[in-house]
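Teaching assistant's notes for section 4

Start the section by putting this record on the projector. Ask students to predict, before seeing the second block, whether Peroxidase will look compact or extended. Collect guesses on the board.
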Amino acid sequence: MVVNCSFAKTKGRQLVRHVVTYDHLTALETLTMASHNKLVPLVLLQLLIALSVVQSYNGQGLKVGFYKYTCPAAETIIADTTRQFVSRSPTLAAPLLRMHFHDCFVRGCDGSILLDSTKTNQAEKAAFPNLRLRGYQVIDAAKSALEKTCPGVVSCADILALVARDAVATINGPYWDVPTGRRDGRVSLASEALTNLPSPSAKITQLQQGFASRGLNNKDLAVLSGGHTIGTALCVTFASRLYNFTGKGDTDPTLDLRYAANLRKRCKPNDRTSFVEMDPGSFKTFDEDYYNLVARKRGLLVSDAALLNDPETSAYVILQATTHGSTFAQDFAESMVKMSQIGVLTGKAGEIRKTCALVNY
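Reveal the predicted structure now:
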């Protein structure tokens, strides 16, 4: 079995890939035997094993321009469709970005978030963290247009990854080249969404573990959290910070008192329907204001405030808050490329769905 360990970084708007190929079984067996005979330092054996683990997260098989010959107009069709929807309704950008994130954190970026529930299965869409996701009509419209132009070629997983990019770009956020070539998964379970998606009440160690298990580091955690610069959150997702933080009817001491008082006016105890802006005043604009809020103890969710509880993530928050997001756009682009390659299906794995909400039969 050949292992391709790919590392990607963006340079301007050009994705640069560095690929190292190993015959995994042969090399691993050889190095194992050699290490016992002290011919090869143990560190090399450990490196090869580590590289084989990275394989699960590096998006092998993906490349920028995957559809150049099979469907040349694919990315243009998707971009045009996305702009038509998001330009009319800018608030769609946040749920479309979140949809991509939620897809990748459950079974990898395989489009499983797009599948509908059936009589015998509750799909990811039905899980509580996904109930407020919207924008599926954008994916469906892009898929319909693509099926007319090049039927059976472009996967729903790729459409979602490209739509997320184009939605952010439409509201003046960063643009990044998306490596494509994903195929669609056939399994979608609400129970897995509940288990795998980061909780809004997660502490820093929980967030770090969840990101690390998917090949994302502390910087990626701090950067991707910046996606909260757009969108809204239900009161129920942070109500405990306002009314019963330690079970004694108190307020989270890490939350700015004035901000907490304002939130209590918007969110009453046991309110499960009201919502507030994640980034008050600019929740439709992709900018660095999120970090200003977190630095001032006005991050809305426990998971936002948690970024201040680790030296590395806290340093990133302060950097963006004090330099007006000097590196945020580029950092976000790079982390999105990295995230979009988690656990992808390529080659002959999975399928290319005819309809994004249904598996092929």
